[in-house]
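Section: Multi-chain targets

For targets with more than one molecule, the full set of components is provided together so that the structure can be written out for the assembly as a whole rather than chain by chain. Components appear in the order listed by the source. The example entry contains two components.
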Amino acid sequence: MTDHRARRLLVLATFNLCSLGLAGCAAFSPDGGMTAVSDLTSRTIDKDVAFVQTSEGADAIDARVSQLLARTLNAETAVQIALLNNKGLQAAYNELALAETDLVEQSLPPNPVFSISRISGSGASEVERQVVGDILALATLPFRSDIARDQFRQAQLRAAEATLRLANEVRRAYVRAVAGNEMVALLTDAKATAESTAQLAVKLGETGSLNKLDQAREQVFYAETTADLATARQTAASAREKLARLMGLWDGGLDFRLPNQLPPLPRRPQALPSIEADAVAHRIDLQIARLGLNALAKSLNLTEATRFVTLLDLAGISRRTQDPEGAPFRERGFDVQFQIPIFDGGEVRVRQAAETYNLAFNRLTERAVNVRSEARDAYRIYRSSYDIASHYQREIIPLRKIITEEMQLRFSSMQVDIFALLTEARQRLASLRGAIDARQRFFLAQSDLQTAVNGGGTPASGGDNPTTIAAAAPADAGH
Amino acid sequence: MYSRRRFLGTAALVGASALQGRVQAASIPEAPHMDKVVMQPPLHPIGGPDYRPVVTLNGWSLPFRMNGDWKEFHLVAEPVVREFAEGMKVNLWGYNGQSPGPTIEAVEGDRVRIFVTNRLPEHTTVHWHGMIIPSGMDGVGGLTQPHIRPGKTFVYEFEMKKSGTFMYHPHSDEMVQMAMGMMGMVVVHPRDQTFRPVDRDFVFVMSTYRVDPGTYLPHVNEMTDFNMWTWNARVFPGIDPLPVRLGDKVRVRIGNLSMTSHPIHLHGHSFAVTCTDGGWIPESAQYPETTTDVPVGAVRVFDVLADNPGDWAFHCHKSHHTMNAMGHEVRNLIGVSRKDLAKAVGKLAPDSMAMGATGMAMGNMEMPAPDNTLPMMTGAGQFGPIEMGGMFTVMKIREDLARDDYRDPGPYRFPKGTVAYEVTAPATEPARQQPDAVPMKNMKM
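Its structure, encoded as tokens over all components, is:
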């Protein structure tokens, strides 16, 4: 009797398992989830991404990278190289692949456990066979696979975010490295000028035309410029090194070529009236948080659904007992264990779930508010840094040029001393340095603006816990 | 330029009606206007006693009309643009289109009536410097007359009591007005034409300006650091030469309304100062000179017999006064090798040329300069750059020049063998006398 019932239950479980398997079983995708990542990122940064899994793939990537490295890099090619060649990014893609394994695992029904036990002694023996299925796991399979799908989607977004973050970092590093080059070139020039005038000052000291005080005054520019040049060289080298790191280059790839100066400013700045809406729609961290909230909501329902049954193990029992005294006899039956939460009534866990959900909800809302503000701020910084850089480019530098030309005319017609030219050259140098700085700030701000709309600007957040969203790290001020 | 015929016509028209007493506004004479900066031919008198007219260096004499026994002149005080030399124009104040104003010529004993119309943005007066006139005609605003307000015309009437060379300038906000170029010369010829006559008579006034390169207005508050040292508001090579026929007796009348004295030097001759704004110097008191210092606010007239043909430099002997715009805060670069200098300059001013390593001689280079300024030294002669500017010109004495011909005769054709020449000398150091090897008594050598 009991035997029949148990058997029927097992059959039922198997049936359920199979029917569920048809509906919820997930298979490994051929791309490891990368297509979605590449779609997401190409939409915003228009670059190829690749998840290197085979040696042929690695060879193709290497060929592509060395092809890109053959020419002087611009910001876009630098980003492209990093996206293909940065091993940290590959690691992020590995995490995505791992998330997919979770998804597949979570969408499979639990494997039934078969057990057989034999107990014997004093001539008596007992053989017990069990087929144990995790009924609960089976019952919650649709929920779990749903959640796992969300989590996989989150993982994809995180991979995309890592991609965008890398692109942003590369762009910033590129801007700094090129601006570093420009500064070094400027100061090298200035140093040469300062050196020859310092030598002239020494000569004038020898002819008796310049006293010690004035000699020192004329030479201090040389001394200062030398120090500035050393600092600039170091800054440029570090910036280049960081770019090399981000592009995943080493050894042979390190002699990549960078331009000597930053590109000119765009003719006019972008007008982005709907930047807040764009940011809220596009920001990957927001999308992640939103999905996290969904997953959480689902798991909360799950908690409510199972609040009285935390663990339900069903074991089909077939026990055969042999008594030495008598003939062997069979016993059949089943064993069901319940844990009934009489004492906490499940209430605590319901509260926990609700608060966890509310926390996540508020965090998401806060995030959205912050994203809007960040977008506005990034746009303002972008605009003002454009205005400042363009003020340098369109006003200050041309005025400096006029001053230089006029001073040279005055020098030519013996109106001013040669050292007046030097004084003017120092001021011009300060303006030119200001202009390089301003242009660098603009290109950094441009990159930050992209980041503020698309995401990828904040450093990796907690990761494991999608409901905990780190407050946006302050954007790198650049100086 | 004024039209002489038109002027004569006007003179004839109004000259018919003899005026007495206070002048009617309608009868104010025409005010001639001059737009040329080159020396105008002498203006022979059209009425009154005859005299031998002067020529004004890069200037002109003011035409007059006879009105009964009055000589009438009309000065218009107004803003003008004066060309200091080609390539530099300065916004000044002057009279009748130019600064300095035209020379007023009259004869000892003449009764003159000088109308002064003020077209300046501020009041003015005219003071007749050195002339013996009634106090009420002396033109000191506030002291002897009300200032002439803008748009008003005043008239000065007096008798030319003594012959000589005088000046006119405002005595009304004079610091500004003289710094802006308000000045001119007055020549009163002796009634007796046999009194110390000359064949050629030149006149000019010296003034100085500070016009920073690239600007068009002088600094009116400058006291000492001028950069434009002018004769009749012209600088070399903008100053006309003084063409003279060999053997002519030449008179040069020089007024000084700048703020420093100018030792004026003529090459190749000795001369005698014959007159100041105080009057004629008795011949017994004259002594020979080649340089005469013209003090501030004074006139010096020298007479010279042009008996030495050639091109003779004639200039102020303060060497900075024979330079145009130059910076006075420029370090001395003598002794630094040209190469070192070129290296330093090349870095700082790629388009400039290194100079000054041996001196400032650079007359043969066309140096780029700021707008509206002149090279520090310029002007070319037949042998190359003259390396001069400012108060410098040339007295050109020629045998083949006609009487009263004031045209530039061109460069002097030196007779063969009369020009300094190069000799072939060994490249070694020239032999030098050895100082006495025996030490002097009580001297540590």
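The longest helix of chain A spans residues 141-207.
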